[in-house]
Amino acid sequence: MLPQSPPEPLNVQGRTRRVGVEIEFAGLPPQQTGELVRDLFGGELKLVSPHRLRVEATRWGDFVIELDTQYAHPDTRLLEALPRHDTEWERQRHQMRLDFHNKTRELIGDVVTGLVPTEIVCPPVPWNELNELDTLFGALHAHGAKGTDASLLYGFGLHLNPEVASLEPEHILRLFRAFLLMAAWLRKEINIDITREVLPHANPFPKHYALKVLDTDYAPDLNTLIADYISFNPTRNRELDLYPLFAYLCPDYPDELFRNNLIKPRPTFHYRLPNAQLSQRGWGAVVEWNRWVAVERLAADCKELNGRASRYVNLHTQPLVTRMLGRLRHWIKEVRSPS
Q: Model pTM?
């Protein structure tokens, strides 16, 4: 399968837009995963810490492979801290604290290996080369990696980070509106795993917030768009996480969430919805990218986008009785229609 072209294939610099890909899975620890990535894409495998590796200098950049829990890895802030006093005794105490911290984190990683997923964070890949990255997913499955559907306990996902074609608030708002209108379709197409539905990592947006954004009179500047988003979504756990993009656009925005070290500022949408369907033949980043492209095509058609937004708002602001009667009429029409 080949990746479909988005309506706007170039970024703000006039180069082919890129897509970051992240995937979680079980059954293959970081060391073996790192070796597999190196064998597929070249580069040099380097140990960053006992449960985090990097495959450097591939054709696209660096891959990071790690256990997907911060508690299995040394805390960067502690590693970068200085001794409290410039004395030999304090320097020795500081080093002992570091050694104890590093060993503790390594032991935690040893204990949770097999209980928490391994994650691969791929470097940004040009959208028209995603089919070449997809060789990774078949190789993972062949080497024993297990995706979302392998167990009820596996709430694993694949995340896409599509680079934006424009940094203008109007463009971001159009894409966001299109996503809100197509979120139900995406969930149906993807067939979201029941475990991922229960877990909070990719929750839908609140209905009252969707109605606010889809109102065709809503025309915020960037600060208002960010302020409204924070007010209704004080969490990263949304099916389309806008915090990385907002942190990139406004790094000094005065909100504590922007200080969260788990938020990586970048000029991308952070699309968290897809399952990690490693056992499904032909599945990979291209399948999910092509679904995302459907969102971008709606966003590019302003007339269709505004029409669907108006119909959505009208439908969901009607009295409950009116909506129920409308659904009943629709059901009767379907029953009466010839098969």
A: 0.86
Taking the C-alpha atoms of residue 205 and residue 238, their distance in angstroms, rounded to an integer, is: 7
> CB–CB of 190/274 below 8 Å?
yes
Question: Maximum distance among all alpha carbons in the chain?
Answer: 88
Those residues whose C-beta lies under 8 Å from the C-beta of residue 100, and which sit 6 or more positions away, are none
- Per the CB < 8 A criterion, the answer to whether 182 and 294 are in contact is yes
Ramachandran area for residue 144 (φ above 0: left; ψ -120 to 50: alpha; else beta): left
Q: What is the 3-state secondary structure (H, E, C) of 13-60?
A: CCCECEEEEEEEEECCCHHHHHHHHHHHHCCEEEEEECCEEEEECCCC
Rg (alpha carbons) of the chain, rounded to whole number: 23
- Please give the Cα distance from 304 to 178 (Å, whole number): 10
How confident is the model over 219-255, as pLDDT tens digits?
A: 999 999 999 999 999 999 999 999 999 999 999 999 9
